[in-house]
Amino acid sequence: MSWTRSLFVAAGAALIAAAVPVHAQTTINLTAIDGYPPKSLWVKEFIEFYIPEVDKRLARENKYKIRWNQARGGQIVKPNGVLEGLQKGLGDIGIVTTAIYGDKMNILSVAYATPFVTTDPKLVSHTIDAMVEKFPAIRKTFASYNQVYLTNAVVLDSYQVFTKPAVKGLGDLKGLKIAGAGLNLRYLGPLGAVGVSAPLVNYYNQIRTGVVEGCLLWPETVDYFTRHLYAEKSAEALAKDTGLPVAGAHAALRRHLGVVYDICHQAVEFEDISASLASLVSAGIPIFKLQEAAALRVPVVTQALVDALTPFADTVYLTQTLEKRDGRMTRYLNLEDAFAAWKTDPGAREWRTHFHVPVFLDDLGMFKTTRFAIEEALRFHKATPVSRHLEIETYTWDVLPQHLKTGDITDYVVRELEWVRGQLA
Questions:
Q1: Closest to 5 (Cα-Cα) out of 177, 182, 141, 163
Q2: In the chain, at which end, N or C, are there fewer CB atoms within 10 A of the end residue's CB?
Q3: Where do the domains of the chain lie, and which CATH numbers do they carry?
Q4: pLDDT of residue 284
């Protein structure tokens, strides 16, 4: 399920009015507030991108400088309390989460009211910023709470339902109590689930104590590791089960729990390879294995290419396919489903299919591959080593179309190894 959610940067109106031009460089003291800790996805983006970007742009003119005072994790406001905190003057700038302010910020609920329009976060962000410029009522709404709209800060492109009991189909969701935030709960009704409004920080305890049976959350590897696998509760549980001291349990979790980074899977999902690797590195999440694998790619689908893809579909291997069309992503369990969708509604689109093809080939004649993603990952690894274990994962030699079989298995393996070594040279 793909939905979009927007969060907005707002500042106290009095602060904006006080910023008047002067000849000498003026230092402005700003207190940034949020009830959630710095590791929270939107807070982290504010700290690691928004603040440095503002500082960089101000430095160009050398007229203003900001002295940032950051009050996070409930120091000034509780979770979901930024709008009221700014309204009362407890802080100067913060991220207002629209999901929890459906009653006050319903004018900006477009991302919730029309959830299936697009799954492109950039498009949602730019659209809402354009709406603010076009419709004065939006700025007036912020002004009524003593705030000034600055920009759309964060857009999440997907939500998932995580449950304690096994859910094998939509019917299993009926009657389950699912924790979520404000406007997000409206997605649960049609699924038969019961939405329970709760701040993110309460999800764990509510599930553990049976208040709810699941939660509505965005899937994000770094967030999952930092909030759950590496969390204090996890360390305490491991310490209890093993007899390790809690500090030792923390160290063991970080030593033994990490990820296998499959470049093929990332490319099929249209992931930003360098950005995703950088986020794992900065969070201290080990990459135990970096898998070099390339997927089948059709930049512009046509009927002739659909016909030519048939041999790739008629195999024992899974052919999950991701389609990008007009900025919207659609997932198909296999190529046959993608073929059926094309037949019903043909038109320009890109397909990336989970069918491993030789990494030493970028061009398969009528098709392309996602080898560019391997090149990008290896460039990153060469500059910042991310794993001690590199693995080339191509296992479809026996079912490749005949025109791609240009040697025996030994030749193929040697060519793959030589190509990867060449990238690292």
A1: 182
A2: C
A3: 5-155 (3.40.190.170), 159-218 (3.40.190.10), 260-424 (no CATH)
A4: 82
